[in-house]
Amino acid sequence: MLTAQQWIEALGLEPHVEGGFFRRTYQADHRPPVRTEQGERLLLTSIHYLLTEASPIGCWHLNRSDILHFHHSGAPLTYHLIHPDGRAESVTLGPDPYQGQVLMLAVPGGVWKATSLDGGDHALISEAVAPGFDYADMTLGHADELANRFPQHTELVRRYRTR
């Protein structure tokens, strides 16, 4: 199994604003754009995303687009989700369905999300985003604002706050 550093080098990954490392791997620029309330977006984009022992948390953020997450290598990741109605859930994305892990996770747009590496050197995933990812459609979570909005989840929010 490759190490985190080997994956970073092999895939040309760069630091991501929410934590970890990434690189865009696909964008459907050969298709007509999709109209959204925020403007035109690509139909679909995709990235590789890596959390490492040195950068084990993907901080709270919200995307307007739906995102499919696919586990490829390494340790499991726990996705901490807070839905618009205030319901929280945790889902483990990983290689072992016998341990309750899922290989693919769909997170609808409008759901707050934070991710944590569950031990190990790394976890490598891919994400497919539709409509395609645009930084204008992502909001980084601020612990105080999220704790005020979801007071029942204050401890969870503070655990995975922005850097």
From TrEMBL:
InterPro entries: Cupin_DUF985, RmlC-like_jellyroll, RmlC_Cupin_sf, YML079W-like. Residues 5-140 form the DUF985 domain. It holds the Pfam family Cupin_5. PANTHER family: DUF985 DOMAIN-CONTAINING PROTEIN, RMLC-LIKE JELLY ROLL FOLD PROTEIN. This is Cupin domain-containing protein. It comes from Streptomyces argenteolus.
